[in-house]
């Protein structure tokens, strides 16, 4: 049985849609619907199982507990619902679930944890920093609440990717927090994902990252996140078919998650299929018009006209649209200079050199007040015809383990470094072997 991820399901909260229509969009046969009421320190949850084909309620039950027993009640609901659907849970596994989940959890701790999990999905610096505040508040109340510690590690592992924070300031903390979370509870998926992200973005140790992501998949087969990051690993190594197949499994679990579907477009783009990448990206923007990562990837795809049927490189129609996408991405990112770097590159590529140089000067001015990642500045330098400066910035990127180094193999714009310099950069980024393998294919 497959279970759709919470991030895909929650968009239907408070939406007036027929059960049949929701089920059709999610491609499911059954839906579980519930209501929650709190009163005088107690919580009452009513759950019913609905058959999608006709909306018939096949089973319903109510659960009532004191508020601090809410997590134990969730396990009861899960077991009761599974039984109602006809899933047979072997006795020792059911006992294990009850044993691991039955301890009373402080209601405020759980509330802060859930708020943080929601904010994490937005992938912006302010949202992730707010998530960190909630998680720290949760841990101040309960210092050994492993889920909060694991999610805090995940937050620190995401910040250098989604914001301008330096890798050295984030990844060691992510490593430490994830290790502590695993020591408290080895089943914490977020902790293993965080360890994988440290190896992926910071150390570029592909085998170690793969191990962590696969282990996280085993721990929680219903979580789309480890599958998504495993697909990311395949993609940046040029293993494009594996990337798309693995992401397809994540999409089954989480079909309308903005970040998962954005990566569908992203990995198609990495595979040189920019035209195909546009459809999933535009689907994301229909659901989440302010999702900056989708605007960024749409701009990249539109600015690569050699992959678009009938489009002549250098023509302005798709390039202007790409620039508009980069501008929207800059607006909604709230603290990421990647859209600016690609906007500079696109303007220079279509002959708007004066505007590109002005934007590059703006980038350098921004760097004086808030340090911008070296590879973003290097891409801008390449665009305005300063290859020596770009090479110096690549040296800086290696010195600080800039996370964008992982994209050297799949981002064609870096070919402008020249054959020798590009080959050297791939070697130092632990990517040259994959370049040879993809060339052999």
Plain-language structure description:
- This protein has 441 residues and is mainly alpha-helical.
- Among the domains are: 6-105, Rossmann fold (3-Layer(aba) Sandwich); 106-220, Serine Threonine Protein Phosphatase 5, Tetratricopeptide repeat (Alpha Horseshoe), CATH 1.25.40.10.
- The chain contains 22 helices and 3 strands.
- Strands 1-2-3 form a 3-stranded antiparallel beta sheet, with helices on one face.
- Helix 7 packs parallel to helix 9 and helix 13 (258-270) runs parallel beside helix 15 (292-302).
- The longest helix is centred in the middle third of the chain and has 18 residues, at 167-184.
- The relative contact order is 0.06.
- InterPro entries: TPR-like_helical_dom_sf (IPR011990).
- This is Adenylate cyclase.
- It comes from Acidisarcina polymorpha.
What is the topological layout?
Layout (H helix, E strand, L loop, with lengths): L5 H4 L9 H8 L3 E10 L2 E10 L5 E10 L3 H16 L5 H11 L5 H14 L4 H17 L4 H17 L4 H18 L4 H15 L2 H14 L4 H13 L3 H14 L4 H13 L3 H14 L4 H11 L13 H18 L4 H12 L3 H17 L4 H10 L3 H14 L18 H10 L3 H9 L1
Antiparallel strand pairs: 1-2, 2-3
Helix pairs in contact: 3-4, 5-6, 5-7, 6-7, 7-8, 7-9, 8-9, 9-10, 9-11, 10-11, 11-12, 11-13, 12-13, 13-14, 13-15, 14-15, 15-16, 16-17, 17-18, 17-19, 18-19, 19-20
From the N-terminal CA to the C-terminal CA, the straight-line distance is 36 Å
Q: Report the top-level CATH class of the domain at 106-220.
A: Mainly Alpha
CATH superfamily of the domain at 106-220: Tetratricopeptide repeat domain
Mean pLDDT score, rounded?
Answer: 88
Point out poorly predicted stretches: 88-102, 307-315
Identify the CATH architecture of the domain at 106-220: Alpha Horseshoe
Strand content: 5-15%
Question: What name is given to the CATH topology of the domain at 106-220?
Answer: Serine Threonine Protein Phosphatase 5, Tetratricopeptide repeat
The side-by-side strand order for the widest beta sheet comes to: 1-2-3
């Amino acid at each position: 049985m497959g279970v759709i991820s919470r991030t895909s399901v929650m968009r239907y909260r408070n939406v007036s849609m027929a059960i049949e229509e929701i089920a059709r969009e999610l491609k499911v046969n059954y839906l579980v619907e519930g209501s929650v009421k709190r009163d005088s320190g107690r919580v009452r949850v009513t759950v019913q199982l609905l058959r999608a084909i006709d909306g018939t309620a096949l089973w319903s039950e109510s659960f009532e507990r004191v508020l601090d027993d809410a997590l134990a009640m969730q396990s009861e609901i899960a077991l009761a619902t599974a039984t109602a659907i006809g899933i047979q849970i072997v006795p020792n596994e059911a006992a294990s679930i009850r044993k691991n989940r039955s301890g009373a959890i402080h209601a405020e701790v759980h509330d802060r944890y859930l708020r943080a999990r929601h904010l994490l999905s937005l992938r912006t610096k302010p949202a992730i920093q707010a998530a960190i505040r909630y998680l720290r508040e949760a841990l101040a109340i309960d210092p050994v609440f492993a889920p909060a510690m694991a999610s805090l590690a995940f937050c620190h592992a995401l910040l250098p990717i989604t914001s301008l924070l330096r890798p050295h300031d984030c990844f060691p903390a992510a490593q430490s927090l994830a290790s502590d979370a695993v020591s408290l509870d080895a089943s914490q998926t977020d902790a293993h994902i965080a360890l994988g992200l440290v190896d992926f973005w910071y150390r570029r140790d592909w085998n170690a990252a793969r191990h962590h992501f696969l282990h996280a998949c085993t721990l929680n087969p219903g979580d789309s996140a480890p599958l998504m990051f495993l697909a990311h690993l395949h993609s940046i190594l040029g293993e494009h078919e594996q990337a798309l197949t693995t992401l397809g499994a994540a999409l089954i679990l989480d079909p309308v998650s903005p970040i998962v579907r954005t990566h569908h477009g992203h990995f198609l783009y990495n595979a040189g299929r920019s035209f195909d990448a546009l459809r999933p990206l535009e689907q994301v923007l229909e659901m989440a018009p302010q999702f900056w990562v989708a605007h960024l990837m749409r701009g990249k795809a539109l600015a690569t006209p050699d992959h678009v049927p009938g489009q002549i490189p250098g023509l302005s129609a798709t390039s202007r649209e790409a620039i508009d996408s980069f501008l929207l991405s800059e607006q909604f990112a709230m603290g990421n200079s990647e859209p600016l770097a690609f906007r500079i590159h696109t303007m220079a590529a279509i002959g708007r050199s004066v505007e590109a140089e002005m934007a590059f000067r703006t980038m350098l001015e921004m760097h004086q007040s808030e340090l911008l990642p070296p590879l973003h500045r290097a891409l801008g330098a390449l665009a305005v015809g300063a290859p020596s400066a770009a090479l110096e910035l690549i040296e800086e990127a290696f010195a600080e383990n800039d996370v964008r180094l992982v994209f050297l193999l799949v981002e064609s714009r870096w070919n402008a470094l020249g054959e020798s310099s590009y080959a050297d950069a791939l070697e130092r980024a632990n990517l040259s072997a994959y370049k040879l393998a993809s060339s052999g294919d």
